[in-house]
Specification:
There is one protein chain. The chain is globular. Helix 2 crosses helix 3. Strands 1-2-3-6-7-10-9-4-5-8 form a ten-stranded mixed sheet, sandwiched between helices. The protein has a five-stranded mixed barrel with strand order 11-14-13-12-15. The chain is of the alpha+beta class.
Length: 384
């Protein structure tokens, strides 16, 4: 955060320094509490996306630190939203989170309706091979990594990043889960299985122990460069990736330790997906060994529980109103925000004026809603 009116040359007492810290914290909290709007990316967002990508660091493949590539991503997203596809054909939808007060783009998330085709979906499958000898009476199951090249792949969610100043207040969870409202509203546009490649573990210098143990020896480039090139063209993977199984116990211990483990910055995102019904697929990323989580589209909590409702009233939130994700149901313009929902029986629901203004909706319009923070299921004791 930048504080104006304070010069670097000013001598500050400990009390003044504490005041500055409090002001900074209060300002960051205010940012997090502002109304956030989720909307499709636009060409004018390029500079903001370049800034976000610079903050994201290595390993976030689908949000590359490359202005030209980001420009192409924006163009493809605009075309995908305009196409109004009837079935998944590799469309790429990129959403951004905008602070309604400052009109600043502070986050991004994306969905690819179907991966594969001429650019296959690559992963390692963790499997087990049994070795046994009757002579010495040994039977041992050894874990191996088997390369998978999927040309008829699933729907994939990715490109998730939120500016550090805006983390908290439910913004990260909203940015991550709002994609499932888009899927719920247009189910036929997305494959029936949804996956997410969670960023794998990197060291303090952005190096991947897993890449250094395997990929580095075959590709001759560092992890960051391989990660960048995989966005440009995946053909080099098919040309250089070893096809034989990799015996995990033969890898260095630091590489073994990160297989299937999320980057610390991505651990919360993985937990959120697990509460939505995603599970570890037994597959990992071929570069950093981050886990691939998977869930049938129809079983994703937000997709399953979200519903279309009519707006019955607009005004102040009623007592007991619960925080929901709220999205428009227009074909070519997807907008979403979070806010309190007040039930109005068979008539529909009430939303706040702030939410109505952000979404451009009025009484009588239909929106799709889903609980942002559902109560955990009750585990009742068995009957006796």
């Amino acid at each position: 955060m930048h504080l104006r009116g304070i010069r670097a040359s000013d001598k500050q007492t400990p009390t003044a320094c504490a005041d500055v810290l409090l002001l900074s914290a209060a300002s960051a909290l205010a940012d997090r509490c502002n109304m956030m709007l989720i909307r499709p990316v636009a060409a004018a967002d390029l500079d903001a996306l370049v800034e976000l990508a610079g903050l994201a660091g290595a390993g976030l493949t689908t949000l590359p630190k490359d202005r030209e590539l980001l420009g192409k991503r924006i163009t493809k997203s605009v075309e995908s939203f305009s196409a109004n596809a009837e079935r998944p054909g590799g469309e790429s939808y990129l959403l951004v989170m905008e602070d309604r007060q400052s009109h600043r783009v502070v986050g991004a998330c994306g969905i690819t309706s179907k991966v594969g085709g001429f650019q296959p979906f690559w992963s390692y499958k963790i499997e087990s091979v049994r070795f046994e000898s009757n002579v010495i009476n040994v039977r041992k199951d050894v874990p191996v990594l088997t390369i998978l090249e999927e040309h008829d792949g699933p729907c994939e969610i990715g490109s998730l990043f939120l500016h550090p100043d805006y983390r908290g207040g439910g913004n990260g969870r909203m940015l991550q889960l709002v994609r499932f409202l888009l899927i719920a509203e247009h189910r036929d546009r997305f494959e029936s299985t949804v996956v997410s490649e969670i960023r794998g573990v990197l060291d303090a210098n952005g190096r991947s122990p897993f890449w250094n143990a395997i990929g580095q020896h075959f590709f001759g480039i560092d992890f960051a460069e391989a990660d960048r090139l995989s966005v440009v063209n995946k053909k080099f993977i098919a040309e250089l990736m070893p096809r034989h199984p990799i015996y995990i116990p033969l890898l260095p211990l630091d590489a073994q330790a990160v297989i299937g483990k999320p980057h610390p910055d991505s651990a919360r995102a993985a937990q959120n997906l697990e509460t939505e019904g995603f599970r570890f697929s037994g597959m990992v990323d071929i570069f950093d060994a981050g886990p691939v989580l998977s869930c049938p589209r129809a079983e994703i909590r937000t997709v399953r529980e979200s519903r279309r409702v009519k707006i019955a009233s607009i005004g102040a939130a009623a007592a007991g109103a619960t925080e929901h994700m709220i999205a428009t149901t227009r074909d070519r313009l997807f907008l979403a925000c979070k806010g309190p929902i007040s039930p109005h029986g068979s008539e529909g629901v009430g939303i706040t004026g702030e939410c109505a203004e952000a979404l451009g909706v009025d009484v009588g319009d239909v929106v799709r809603i889903a609980d942002l923070n559902p109560a955990p299921p009750l585990h009742m004791p068995k009957s006796v």
